[in-house]
């Protein structure tokens, strides 16, 4: 997953929080990184890849790469945005 720290919703407020590829500077950059991951997955699907796994639905202790914050109070990407991003991913590739 891609890291995005949201102040007031972290397990640990220290700079030790971790996410893949360094932390984005804006929420738009965070969302763009997620979109790019799904775009790449769609491309891999055309080459025969059958599945992909997003490993963390929520932030955990020391890791901020979930789709929701540690306290589950903030959803980082709305369900509507996720649906649009994933459009075509679950349909047959042939």
Explain what this protein looks like in three dimensions.
With 94 residues, the chain is mostly helical. The chain contains 2 helices and no strands. The two termini are 28 Å apart.
Structure summarized in a few sentences:
With 94 residues, the chain is mainly alpha-helical.
Number of helices: 2
Beta strand %: under 5%
Specify the biggest β-sheet: none
- Kindly, what is the distance between the CA atoms of the first and last residues, rounded to a whole number of angstroms? 28 Å
How would you spell out the order of helices and strands? HH
Shape: elongated
The domain tally reads: 1
| Helix-strand makeup class | mainly alpha
Taking all residues together, what is the mean pLDDT?
89
Based on CA atoms alone, the radius of gyration comes out at 14 Å
Number of strands: 0
Tell me roughly what share of residues is in helical segments. 25-40%
Query: Which stretches are poorly predicted, pLDDT < 50 over at least 5 residues?
Result: none
Produce the secondary structure layout.
Elements: H1 27-46, H2 79-86
Question: What are the main properties of this structure?
Answer:
mainly alpha, 94 residues, 2 helices, elongated
């Amino acid at each position: 997953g891609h890291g995005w720290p949201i102040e007031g919703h972290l397990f640990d407020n220290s700079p030790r929080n971790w996410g893949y590829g360094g932390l984005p500077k804006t929420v738009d950059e965070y969302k763009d990184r997620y979109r790019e991951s799904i775009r790449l997955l769609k491309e891999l699907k055309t080459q025969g890849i059958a599945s992909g796994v997003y490993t963390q639905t929520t932030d955990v202790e020391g890791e901020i790469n979930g789709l929701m914050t540690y306290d589950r109070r903030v959803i980082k990407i709305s369900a509507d945005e996720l649906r649009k991003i994933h459009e075509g991913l679950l349909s047959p590739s042939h």
